[in-house]
Amino acid sequence: MLAAIVICGATMFFTSCRDKDDNPVTPEEEPVNVEEYIKSLYGENKRITDGNYDKSLAVKCSNGTFVGTKTDNVIYYLGIPFVGQQPVGNLRWKAPVDVTPNDGVYEAYYYGKTPMQAEGDPSALYVQGEDCLYLNVWQSAEKSTEKKPVMVWIYGGGFETGGTIDPQYDCTNFITENPDIIVVTIAYRLAAYGFLHLSHLPDGADYPDAQNLGTLDQLMGLKWVHENIAAFGGDPDNVTIFGESAGGSSCALLPLVKGSQKYFKRLIAQSGSPIMTRSTEEAIECTDMIMAELGCKTVADLQQVSPRKLADTVGRLLGIYQVLGWRIWPERDGRILPKDPWESYANGAAKDIKLLVGCNKDEFNTFSAAFGVERWNKWAADRMEKRSKLMTQEENAKVESYLNSVSGEEWEKTSSLFSQSYFNAPAIRLSENQASAGGQVFTYFFTPEASTPGVKSGHAIEQSAVFDHPELCVQIAGREFDPTFCKTMRKLWVQFAKTGNPSLSANISPDGKAKEWPLYDQSEKQVMVLDEFNIHPAKESDVKIVDWENTYFLTKYYCN
Prior knowledge:
Layout lengths: L33 H7 L17 E4 L2 E4 L1 E3 L2 E8 L23 E3 L26 E7 L7 E7 L17 H6 L4 E5 L4 H4 L18 H16 L5 E11 L1 H8 L12 E5 L9 H15 L4 H5 L3 H12 L1 H4 L17 H6 L7 E7 L4 H7 L1 H16 L4 H13 L4 H27 L4 E6 L16 H5 L2 H8 L5 H17 L26 E5 L5 E4 H4 L17
Parallel strand pairs: 2-5, 7-8, 7-9, 9-10, 10-11, 11-12, 12-13
Antiparallel strand pairs: 1-2, 3-4, 4-6, 6-8, 13-14
């Protein structure tokens, strides 16, 4: 499978194989060898018992003292466990176990294992395991008497793939540019290990949290950050969570989890919203499909399936890279997550958390371009047929009206429709609901386009700008984005994390021009257009992020 995929440094981005003569690579365009890079990072952190370590790089935490690595002026701590026991053996499909006091000294030189997953994502090239609940801390070596704001990254990958080791999330460049910030990247269980409904099975009563374990993992990671980040010089009362795609959705969902809001005060949701969730009935349907394929009838049967076989089976049946399944999501179970997250936002459940949310102009073009016209048209037709059965005759007519309004070939029409229903309309609905409840939300619209054919301003292409990896932007977008634009985008994110307002005065704006980012409200509906050469605020009605009449209503169907 890997031979047929061009691995890029962005979670969820993949391309179909092309004839080498059709896509020549000149020496100066030679792509980063992600596979070799990731393999070079392998190692296993060990306990230090001889006292031989650099005391200046050691940080005492609640579950041990961890010794990091310094490169140039950046110190990083990799593979710190944020649980007391890893979720293996009889803890498979159990809630994460909190840490216990530990006086040991441990290396924090290497990433922890990547969560179990099917192949396709760059992170899947690293050693995988169920024992995967680790986090990483990045900070400047510059001493400071001030407590630093903290940004906690949650990776995307459709809740099926991904990991902190993805080279996109190496924060060295980010911290070099922003030494007054601390960044943490946290791992969480994926797919059948993190989001598998089990309680309907004969012996499923012992696994009440299995459907949302990945979410609980994220929460446990944030708890560890809250309790320990001060030892690194961070401010536990000034934490911003941020993520893209499933990571962005995670950020949007976390405020709705009971007890979560004491761990962070702001969130940035890039191309993610509560729409990436599923009902209990949808979750059970996926579980039953997996069980039938494996010949299992009970959780005890599933426990006998090897980690590799389970991950690969789920990938083959439902995987993003394999079939663009888009069916494994956190569950709206009414216990960990609300039955109706949209209603929760509208009722003010997150009004005390400041939001920065948005989407890219042509989100689904990343997927339609990767699949190719024939495969994409088949996938889109199948998904539209299933959704049409849920909708009224009037709603189906609205969808048809939207498709007729989009110029281009059939794949361009349906790609635009799914961009609207899965990303653009949800970003606006999240903004609407937060604003209507009296909360604060800043909304953006990312418009730079790739030179890669068909991708345009597709899903995930903004990540290289956020983490300052222009070399990976070339692999994803086919070109580098303007460096001043990218630096400005990062500064907007950082300013929001510092102050709760992303606006930039002229003296801190990379291009020397002030960037006033207005709050989204229900009357003016102003957004910030992240245009590569003209970042500016505009009314939503001027840029037309969503078709209010023909696609906005689709958000109520989530990702069906």
